[in-house]
From TrEMBL:
Gene3D superfamilies, A to Z: alpha/beta hydrolase
Name of a matching Pfam family: Abhydrolase_6
Protein name: Alpha/beta hydrolase
Superkingdom of the organism of origin: Bacteria
Keywords assigned by UniProt, alphabetized: Hydrolase
Protein's organism: Lentzea sokolovensis
UniProt domain AB hydrolase-1: residue ranges: 7-203
Transmembrane segments: none
SUPFAM superfamilies reported for this sequence: alpha/beta-Hydrolases
Entry GO MF terms: hydrolase activity
Length: 210
C-alpha cells in the first residue's frame, strides 16, 4: 500500500488532514502529516521537508501531497524520496529560485474580494477546531528561495478546487497551465477541501497514486 506524505498549508497543522487520513487508512494506506516548524525562524523550507521525510516509516511507495503553501514543500519531499507521485491540492506552484514572498506578484495573484475565503463550506464544528490551531508563519519561510532547479521528475497532479475563494479557479488554471503544463483534476470544494470534502479528496489522492 501507499504512504501519503502530506505538507499542510501556511499557518496550519497536520490535524486539518485527519479526516482524509482516516479515509486513506481505512483503505489500508499509511498517512504522515506532521506539524511543520512554520513559526521557527531558524528553519527553512528544506527543514520543513525534512520533518516529513523523517516521519516516514519507509521511503518506498510514497506519494507527496502539498496543500496551499505546502506546494513549496511537497516537491522537496518528492525529490528526496523519489516519490511515486506528487499531488498539489489548490497549492502554490513554485519556480526555481523563487521565494514564497515573491510568488504572489510573479503569478499575478489578486484576491477574490469574497468574505470567508477559507472555511465557507466547512462544517461549523470543524471551523471552530481549525481556528484554535491556527499558527503564525516565520519571515524566513517567505524570504528564502525555493531550492530546486526544477520540479521533481515524478508524475505530478493538481487538484483544483472549483469553489475556492482564496486561490480562485480561473487564477489557478493559469498558474497550473503555465508552471506545470498538466490538466488539473477538479473537486467541488473550497480552499480547505481536506475538511469540507475529505472522502472525495481521499478518493482523488488514491486515483493519483494509481
Amino acid at each position: 500500500m501507499t504512504t501519503f506524505a502530506i505538507a499542510h498549508g501556511g499557518g496550519d497543522v497536520g490535524w486539518s488532514w485527519h479526516l482524509v487520513a482516516e479515509a486513506l487508512r481505512a483503505k489500508g494506506h499509511t498517512v504522515v502529516a506532521p506539524d511543520l516548524p512554520i513559526e521557527d525562524e531558524s528553519k527553512d523550507l528544506t527543514d520543513w521537508a525534512s520533518t516529513i521525510v523523517d516521519a516516514l516509516p519507509s521511503t518506498s511507495d510514497v506519494v507527496a501531497v502539498g496543500h496551499s503553501f505546502g506546494g513549496f514543500v511537497a516537491p522537496l519531499v518528492a525529490a528526496r524520496v523519489n516519490a511515486r507521485a506528487l499531488v498539489l491540492v489548490t497549492a502554490m506552484v513554485p519556480s526555481p529560485g523563487e521565494t514564497p514572498g515573491d510568488w504572489w506578484a510573479n503569478t499575478g495573484y489578486t484576491g477574490s474580494g469574497l468574505e470567508d475565503q477559507f472555511f465557507h463550506d466547512v462544517p461549523a464544528h470543524l471551523v471552530a477546531e481549525a481556528r484554535k490551531r491556527e499558527r503564525g508563519m516565520s519571515e524566513n519561510s517567505m524570504a528564502k528561495p525555493w531550492p530546486l532547479d526544477a520540479m521533481p521528475d515524478v508524475p505530478t497532479h493538481f487538484v483544483l478546487c472549483t469553489e475556492d475563494r482564496f486561490f480562485t479557479p480561473d487564477f489557478m488554471r493559469e498558474v497550473v497551465a503555465d508552471r506545470l503544463g498538466v490538466e488539473p483534476v477538479e473537486l467541488a470544494a473550497g480552499h480547505c477541501a481536506s475538511l469540507s470534502k475529505p472522502n472525495e479528496l481521499a478518493d482523488l489522492l488514491m486515483a493519483c497514486a494509481s
